[in-house]
Amino acid sequence: MTARTMGKVGLLILAGGLVAGAAEVKKRGDTSYMTVDQKEPFASVLKRMTADKPKVERRHAQVLESRYDLSNRPAKDAAMFRGKPLQDGVRARLPQGVTWQSLAAMSPEQIRERDAFPGAFKPLPHPNHPEGGMVFPKFHIDEIKRQEGRDLTRFDLDFDLPDHFLPEFPPAIFLTTRTDLGDVSQGKLVTIMNYYELFSGILNPKDLEGLRLLVTPFPQQQFNQTEDRRSEVASRGVTCFDCHVNGHTNGATHQVGDIRPQEFRHRIDTPSLRGVNIQRSFGSQRALSSVEDFTEFEQRAAYFDGDHVIATKKGVNVLERGSQVHFMAELQKLLDFPPAPKLRVVDGKLDPARASESELRGQEVFFGKGQCATCHLPPHYTDNTMHDLHTERFFKQELVDGMVMAGDGPIKTFPLRGIKDSPPYLHDGRLLTLDDTVEFFNLVLETKLTDAEKRDLVAFLRAL
Fold this sequence. Notes:
Radius of gyration: 22 Å
Strand content: 5-15%
Helix content: 25-40%
Shape: globular
Structural class: alpha+beta
Largest sheet: 4 strands, antiparallel
Low-confidence stretches: 1-17
Distance between the termini: 41 Å
Number of helices: 12
Strand order of the largest sheet: 1-2-8-9
């Protein structure tokens, strides 16, 4: 159940998707809390939401189609570590009569007044924003069911983005403590069924126990044993590595738990845990100060949409800080970035002897005209702080597919090392490709890059 206060709004199809006027947006919810004592029988909920599912997914699909070119166009010369091709080209659709060049020539005020900001650059709604909750790609659901017999299927909703825009599965695992081994995943999805076999003799006992906890299912808002769940059969719950697969990501989505009302909550694109050892801020906006804090918070609150009351009902797993939280955090701090053979050891910049001309030109744009290095500093390409892009300069507040299009506020600077392995991009996954990401920042930062500079910048990002 969600703390939603949608009200009755008239919806219509526009270029940005299903939209309600700004005057109808409700700024404050009726309550911060969810309903604890659900009166509707589970059988009734199952029947009602299963019947509504086609309509819900059709409505969201219209938003995606209006915003993006979702076709499968793999890049010929760029792939993730284990070989999955990157998707090529800009996928954001432009408003009619607008080009990227003409858009970049406008001021933020002009773009706002002409309603010319691409829908793909506005916040991306959850597949069912009024309902929210964890949603997993089918390939992950299938593998977990095969290995564990645990079903992460939601009866009310399926994952929305096509697989070709998601990270490769299962992803590689690199350890800071055993760089000599390279990828230690053996091409397998790490679960409670195989973690010991894969890592005994590589990890110490403390880290092995931390890994066990990271792949152990615990109750969660949509997956639990109560009548208030979204799995057809009572569920053992979810694991940390159901989203942060192999310590990386599978693109699973959820909503932040720290915002009310429901319409203002942000969608989350699961971030990678690679390189958390060099990071000093955790959570896209919460700025938690340690991996330990983040690990404990996820179990206590984020699993339950930030509502500790409903968490108590559904079976919150209270981790012991001195051992369990510490063990889990220590394991996470061993997760390394993938190799980047074209980067110099001394400063994390390109080795001219290994890099292409296009990549070298892109590096010049990155550290110069593109202003990327203002936030993304080598060698890991983060400044370990937060920045507010004030995207609300470019569009008017409105309700789209159950979500208010509003500014994002301060967002953590995520590392760009290994960025090609973790599409889609930005904290909510609204940018499907690196090409989209370059166009987004070119517009938001008003850098006015040429087409050639954009191509070179994408080439550089793929080399990180």
